[in-house]
Amino acid sequence: MTWNINGAPDQKGRIAIVTGANIGLGYDTALALAGKGCTVVLACRNPDKAQAAREQILSRYPKAHVKCQALDLSSLKSVRSFASAFSKSHKKLDLLINNAGIMMPPFSLSEDGFESQLAANYLGHFALTGLLLPLLAKTPDSRIVSLSSLAHNWGDIRFDDLHFKKGYSKRGAYGQSKLACLMFAYELNRRLRRAGIKTLSVAAHPGVAVTNLAQHFPKFLAVFFPLVGQSAASGALPTLYAALGEDIDGGDYCGPRHMRQMRGAPVKVGSNRASRDQTAAKRLWELSEELTGVRFLD
Fold it and tell me: How many domains does the chain divide into?
């Protein structure tokens, strides 16, 4: 049976954080959650864009509970500030949707010295998850959804040059960041189980979704993209299935059903061998702790 957001349980009384919620997949994820009655925190780098997104959501669902809170995932200082403020003002967290990301920009390093895609897509979310885990762990039926991509197939983790300082490939760096997100989701689930914590760690990918992420694509790909892709609303469905599906287990990975996971209804999907390499995942986790200074579930 095909999962449908309309059949998902009412979310009244639950609270979700959606990173990068002002546009694209994040916006459509937040919109759907708000429509189901969930209190949604739009965790965004640009406060003005977050507020505009909030107003858009309220125009659709006037009774929705939507908040904005500033978060720049490429800055560990911002991540710590966000997590501290949220933890002080909330007693629980039902859903953490690690959605925000950038895709194939020109080379740059974050203020912490990390390659920009690894910083925003993975390391910021690693730190955010660790800092919010105490709230998640004490909230019944909580879930953490990490956004990966078909691009996780593009390469491996470059442990010898994680930040591409020996030569930048924007495609390689994006693929590495999304492979890291998927490895993290799997490893996080293993560690949660060993610790006896019932929070579920799951992953999702949107297939080929036509969003603002394609802004740095070469022109020929920008033309091809809409021909095989689906809307951001459709691309958000695997995330929503991972977050709300009643048959979801820890360690599941959700994506589109058709055209080699490029589009279609959300289902549980498989991933490549590199994403399931537990030795590499443990090494990546330890390195991520070292880089971010956030240690959890050791």
Answer: 1
List all residues 6 or more positions away from 205 whose beta carbon is below 8 Å from its beta carbon.
Answer: 147, 148, 149, 150, 152, 178, 238, 253, 254, 255, 261, 269
Whether residue 230 is contained in a domain is answered as: yes
CATH number of the structural domain spanning residue 288: 3.40.50.720
- Active-site annotation holder among 27, 122, 174, 241: 174
**Whole-structure pTM value:** 0.93
Per-residue pLDDT of the chain in tens (298 residues, 90 and over written 9): 689 899 999 999 999 999 999 999 999 999 999 999 999 999 999 999 999 999 999 999 999 999 999 999 999 999 999 999 999 999 999 999 999 999 999 999 999 999 999 999 999 999 999 999 999 999 999 999 999 999 899 989 999 999 999 999 999 999 999 999 999 999 999 999 999 999 999 999 998 866 554 444 455 445 555 555 568 898 999 999 999 999 999 999 999 986 667 878 899 999 999 999 999 999 999 999 999 999 999 9
User: Which domain, by its residues, includes 286?
Assistant: 12-292
Backbone angles phi, psi at 115, to 5 degrees: -55, 135
174 is catalytic: yes
